[in-house]
Specification:
single chain, 221 residues, alpha/beta, six-stranded parallel sheet, globular
């Protein structure tokens, strides 16, 4: 999808084999995700998945997502069938979708797939709560992966975010990540700074109160 599967796989293998891997991690400890760039007819989608596995050099893909619902119903369902077959072939451990609305999820479920999507990766944060989609996913045991949980750093100075971050003695980013977790989502915070990457993961020391969660929910635009 992002033309970096080979580079990412190479970096993972190099780390696992290096002295930096002090904890003795193995391939099974790594969760590698990639996507199908475009929905298409079955053969093309199936070949693309196999190509992704080979490029990564990791033996298998932990989570493979259909990047979007674009391409029409036939292409969506054909592409999902390719994911199912890749799972049964051992090339993929878990299949999911990305940017799917309720309509697209219902369509897929109505097709009586052999395997239901385990994940729907969508943009979710207090300023874009997507409650219709998230509620549907959670009611159907589909994990919500929240991309852009930090609102692309565009709301770090929002008065409510600043006030609550001060209240809980955390950074605005940590507050936003914690909000996602308390809603049961899997947030995917992104940063190019090592210190921020570490800080974004250190959110186990506090819990946002019920009223404050409601306040943050009310920021939806």
């Amino acid at each position: 999808m992002y033309d970096n599967e080979k580079q990412t796989g190479t970096a993972i293998k190099a780390f696992l084999a290096s002295d930096a891997n002090a904890e003795g991690l193995t391939r099974d400890d790594i969760h590698f995700t990639t996507k199908l760039a475009r929905n298409s007819e079955y053969d093309k989608a199936r070949k693309s998945i196999s190509t992704s596995v080979k490029k990564s050099g990791l033996g298998y893909i932990d989570l493979f997502l259909l990047h979007s619902p674009y391409g029409g119903k036939e292409a969506r369902l054909d592409s999902w069938r390719a994911v199912e077959d890749a799972i049964e072939a051992g090339e993929v451990k878990t299949g999911g979708v990305s940017n799917y609305g309720v309509k697209h999820l219902k369509e897929l479920m109505a097709s009586k797939p052999r395997i239901l999507p385990a994940v729907n990766q969508i943009e979710v944060h207090p300023f874009n709560t997507r409650t219709e989609i998230t509620s549907f996913c959670q009611a159907n045991n589909i994990v919500v992966e929240a991309y852009a949980p930090l609102v692309r750093a565009l709301r770090m100075k929002h008065p409510t975010i600043v006030l609550l971050a001060e209240k809980y003695s955390c950074t605005p980013a940590q507050l936003l990540v914690r909000w996602s977790l308390q809603h049961g989502y899997v947030p995917l915070p992104k940063s190019v700074t090592k210190e921020r990457i570490v800080a974004n993961a250190e959110i186990g020391g506090f819990e946002i109160g019920k009223e404050d969660m409601s306040t943050m929910d009310g920021l939806d635009e």
